[in-house]
Amino acid sequence: MKYRITTKGFLLTAIEKQHIEKKIEKISRRLTSFESSLPILAIFIKKHEKKHHFGGSMVLTLPKKPLVVNFGGADIESTIQIAFDSLIRAVEVYKGKHFSSNSLYFDKRSLRHSL
Predict the structure, then answer these.
(1) pTM
(2) Distance between CA atoms of 68 and 102, rounded to whole angstroms?
(3) Nearest to residue 70, comparing CAs of 97, 94, 43?
(4) How far, in Å, CA of 49 to CA of 57, rounded?
(5) Partners of 70 in the β-ladder
(6) What whole-number distance in Å separates Cα of residue 30 and Cα of residue 64?
(7) What would the pLDDT profile of 13-40 be if each residue is shown by its tens digit?
(8) pLDDT digits (tens, 9 = 90+) for 64-115
(9) Are 56 and 44 in contact (CB under 8 A)?
(10) pLDDT value at position 115?
(11) Which of 76, 81, 41 shows the shortest CA–CA distance to 61?
(12) Domains along the chain?
């Protein structure tokens, strides 16, 4: 998976970059049905000066629909955790809606035939 990290108002440390890379690997393991170069992840994190918290957005470009996640948190570690948890949930919903073999509930045909 290709990815781009953009920050505004602060710099990421090496430990934070490693933490983000581990989370990206976790997401790429969930997207095994795509080529490794196809999904593109754009991460934007901003430090708000007046409010003293972090916020941003993540866009994961996939074939049928780009997944957009907005997030915020008090410190950078919790912000990264919240962001990737939200993105993992969005990926699971995407897989359930667009790949009928990955879910029991999103494919309406499976519910109608079981009744």
Answers:
(1) 0.78
(2) 21
(3) 43
(4) 17
(5) 57
(6) 16
(7) 999 999 999 999 999 888 877 776 678 9
(8) 889 999 999 999 999 999 999 999 999 888 877 766 655 555 555 555 555 4
(9) yes
(10) 47
(11) 41
(12) 2-114 (3.30.160.100)
Torsions phi, psi for 36 (to 5 deg): -70, -25
Cα–Cα distance for residue pair 72/80, rounded to 1 Å: 9
Supply 15's token pair. Answer: 């430990």
Q: In the structure encoding, which two tokens stand for residue 72, read together? A: 């915020």
Tokens 């997207």 belong to 31
C-beta separation of 37 from 61 below 8 A: no
Which amino acid type is present at position 83? A
Q: What mean pLDDT do residues 40-62 have? A: 92
Question: How would you label 74-110 residue by residue, b for 16+ Cβ within 10 Å and e otherwise?
Answer: eebeebbeebbeebeebbeebbeeeeeeeeeebbeee
* Other beta carbons within 10 Å of 48: 12
